[in-house]
Specification:
Elements (H helix, E strand, L loop, with lengths): L6 E7 L3 H15 L4 E7 L6 H9 L4 E5 L6 H11 L4 E4 L11 H9 L5 E5 L12 H14 L13 E4 H4 L11 H9 L4 E5 L14 H21 L7 E3 L4
Parallel strand pairs: 1-2, 1-4, 2-3, 5-7, 7-8
Antiparallel strand pairs: 4-6, 5-6
Length: 246
């Protein structure tokens, strides 16, 4: 019989072996108070990420969901949600830009019933974007502007969040690109939402996946969300509350 799980951390990967090696002790330390699993959704990385996770499966709460080819971050997160066993779903990047030490600060508001959605935010007091170079910082801010009418959070571009399972089951999620959190905020209308400040760090290893194709998918995603909002007649959702700083 499988060990009961309350928290599922979904970790999408593609060529992230070195990063996972550097992160897994920090993740385990952050999550040890919870009955948890770390679900690594790997798109058949040629660098051996999947093989590393298979070894980690024998030592702790790691599970590998291996996909046959590179299918994209959004679908990786949704596949992770479907395979996850916990009632609290957490998403973070595997490159080290999201600090595992902040995971309890995302989980606790959900666990205690104070929030339906907890967003790691670079743009509330106590957060920062120190890991972004000038070009990525500018790209991020420009991309934020058209997303702001869809949600009231300060950092709709963040991919670091926790959410109750029943919230994501309120509607069919069909994100393109890489902004699953924005899709959930815009279509599932979680309330209340808390924003947890964090310092966005530099990649531990490897190279960024951001490129023209990803930016084009983000534009397509925005158009789909606006079309969905128009057809469903929903107003801008979500009460938001600041979370305690550390």
């Amino acid at each position: 019989m499988a060990t009961p799980v309350d928290v599922s951390l979904v970790l999408p990967t593609y060529n992230e072996r070195e990063c996972v090696e550097l992160l897994h002790d920090r993740i385990d330390t952050a999550l040890w108070p919870y009955r948890h699993e770390v679900l690594v959704v790997d798109d058949s990385s040629p660098d051996g990420t999947g093989e590393l996770v298979r070894r980690l499966e024998g030592d702790g709460p790691y599970r590998l969901l291996s996909r046959p080819r590179r299918l994209g971050l959004s679908s990786a997160v949704l596949d992770g949600f479907h395979a996850a066993r916990g009632q609290i779903l957490v998403v973070m990047d595997a490159d080290g830009s999201h600090p595992p030490e902040r995971l309890p600060d995302l989980i606790e508001p959900i666990r205690t019933g104070h929030a339906e959605f907890a967003l790691g935010s670079r743009r509330v007091r106590g957060g920062s974007e120190e890991g972004l170079d000038a070009m990525r910082w500018m790209t991020s801010w420009i991309a934020t502007l058209p997303a702001q009418p869809l949600t009231r959070v300060h950092d709709p571009m963040s991919g670091f969040f926790a959410v109750r399972r029943d919230v994501v089951e309120r509607t069919v999620l069909t994100p393109t690109g890489f902004k699953v959190g924005l899709e959930i905020l815009a279509k599932c209308h979680p309330s209340p939402v808390v924003e947890v400040p964090f310092h966005f760090g530099k990649r531990l290893a490897g190279t960024s996946k951001l490129g023209p194709a990803v930016i084009a998918l983000y534009g397509e995603h925005l158009l789909r969300l606006y079309r969905w909002r128009f057809l469903n007649g929903r107003s801008t959702p979500g009460s938001r509350h600041p979370a305690p700083q550390r």
